[in-house]
Amino acid sequence: MLTLNPGQMSLPQLRAIAARFEPIALPHECEGQVRASAATVQNIVAAGKPAYGINTGFGKLAKIQIPDEQLAHLQTNLVRSHAVGVGALLDDATVRLIFALKIASLARGYSGVRWEMLQALIAMYNAQVWPCIPSQGSVGASGDLAPLAHLTLAAMGEGSVRVNGTVLPAAEGLKRAGIEPIRLAAKEGLALLNGTQVSTGIALVALFAAEQAFSAAVVAGALSVDAACGSDTPFDPRIHAIRGQPGQIHVAGLYRELLAGSAIRESHRHEDTRVQDPYSLRCQPQVMGACYDVLGQSAATLLIEANAVSDNPLVFPDTGEVLSGGNFHAEPVAFAADQIAIAIAEVGALSERRIALLIDSSISGLPAFLVSDAGINSGFMIAHVTAASLASENKTLAHPASIDSLPTSANQEDHVSMATFAARKAVDVSVNVRRIIAIELLAACQGIEYRRPLRSSERLEAVHALFRGVVTRYDEDRYFAPDIAAADELIATDVFTTFLGDAFAKAVV
C-alpha cells in the first residue's frame, strides 16, 4: 500500500506510480482538513451568499446565481458539458499518475469536496478501473477541463473505463468492482475539473522518458568514444572546473568513470594522429551537461506542481473564505514541458551525429557502415537514416507550445498556456530520442567488437555484454527493426542508471 502524502510527494514516488500499480491510501490526518473544507462550502450554500462555482454559473455565466435545489444538477451538467475530448486515449500508466495527482490535490483540503467522494475515487483507483481520457482537448488553463471531465464522468458511471486493457461502459466497470457511481455535491464537479493534473502528469511521463534516454545517451556516448578510438582528454576535470557549469562538471565525471581503465584508450594514447575529435565526441560534457541542468530545473518545477492545489475557487476553512484566483493556469508546466523537449531533442541530435561518425570509415577507422563485406551488406546505413528522421522530426516537435495562446470562453479566459500539448509532444520527443540512442548503442557495441582483442573499460564491457544478451552481433544483413525495438525496450527498463551510479539518480530528482 502506497501512502500519498498530499503536498509532500517525491519524484521517486511519482516515478513508482507511473511505472507500476500499487494500491494507495491517504494519511488519517487529511480527513479533518477535507471535512472542514466541505463544511465551509455547505455554510456558504446555507447562507445564500453567491460564490463562484458553488452557487453560480461558470466562466461568462458567473453572474447567474443558481437555486439551492439545482446545485447538484449544476455540477453534473458541468461535467457532462465539459467532457469533449478527442483523439487517442491516454495509456493506463499516464491515467494512473493523473488520478493519483488529482486525489492528492483534493486531499489537501482547499477544494471543498467531501471526504466520502474522495474515498470513492480512491476505491476506483485501487480497483484499477481507469477512466478513458482522450489526449486532446485541453489548452492548459482553467485547468485541464476536458480530460479531467472524462475522468470525473467515469466516476459518475458515465462515459467509458478501461479494465485489464478492455474498454467498458463506466457503469459496468464500476459495477464489476462493486463501486457505486459518485453523486456530486456543491462545487465538487468544478473541483474535479479544475487543476493542472493532466498536463503535469503527462509532463512527468515525458520527464521520466527523458531521464531514461539521457542515462542511456551518456553510456552510448562513452561507448562511441572507445569505438571510434577517441580521446578521454576532453573529460579532464580541470577543463570543466574553470568554466564552472555544474551540469557540465558532473557529466564529465560520468564519462571519466565510464571510460576508466579502457585498454582501447590506452592502446592509442601516445599514437593519436588526430589533434582533436569531432564535437559529437569531444563536446559531450558541454552539451549533455547543459541538458542535464535543464532537465533538473524542469523536474523541480513539475514536482512543485504535482504537490500543488491548482483548482478554483479555493476554500480556506480557517477564515471561511472562498477565494477566486488562477492556480489552474499551467504556465509553469508548459515551460517545463517545452524545456524537456528542447533539452532531450539536443541529446538525440548529438547521438545522431555520433552514429553518422561511427558508420563513416574515413572518420571512425571502422569498416564502412559497421559491417563486413560492405556492398553486399548495407549494415547500419539505413538504421542511421531512421535516427536522422527521428532527429529531424524532433526539430519541429521541440518548437515551444507555451508561446502560443488562443482566447476561450468568450474572451473570459483570454490567455492560456497550451501546457497539455507541450507535455504530449515532450513525450513524443523523449521516445524518439530513446530510439535514436538505441541505434547508437547497437552501433557502438558493433564498433567495440572491431577493436578486439582490446577491451573497453569494465563498466562499458558490462554494457556490451548486456546488449549482446538481447541482440546478437550484426555479421550480415538481416531484419533490423526488431533489434532496434529490443534495444529501445532495454533503455525503457531504466537499466542504464545502474551504470552511472547513485550520483546521477540523486542529481535529477
- The count of strands amounts to 9
Percent of residues in helices comes to 55-70%
- The rounded distance between the terminal residues' Cα atoms is 23 Å
Rg, Cα atoms, Å: 26 Å
Query: How much strand?
Result: 5-15%
CATH topology of the largest domain: Fumarase C, Chain A, domain 2
Mean pLDDT: 93
**Level-2 CATH architecture of the largest domain:** Up-down Bundle
Modified residues (2,3-didehydroalanine (Ser)): 142
Protein name: Histidine ammonia-lyase
Enzyme class: lyase
Family: Belongs to the PAL/histidase family.
Produce a short descriptive summary.
55% of the residues lie in helices and 5% in strands. With 509 residues, it is mainly alpha-helical.
Indicate the topology.
Elements: E1 2-3, H1 11-19, E2 24-25, H2 30-47, H3 71-82, E3 86-89, H4 92-106, H5 115-126, E4 130-131, E5 134-136, H6 145-155, E6 160-163, E7 166-169, H7 170-176, H8 188-193, H9 197-227, H10 237-241, H11 246-259, H12 263-268, H13 279-282, H14 284-306, E8 314-316, E9 321-323, H15 331-359, H16 361-364, H17 381-397, H18 419-449, H19 458-468, H20 481-491, H21 502-507
Parallel strand pairs: 1-2
Antiparallel strand pairs: 3-5, 4-6, 6-7, 8-9
Summary keywords:
21 helices; Fumarase C, Chain B, domain 1; Fumarase C, Chain A, domain 2; mainly alpha; two-stranded parallel sheet; about 500 residues; three-stranded antiparallel beta sheet
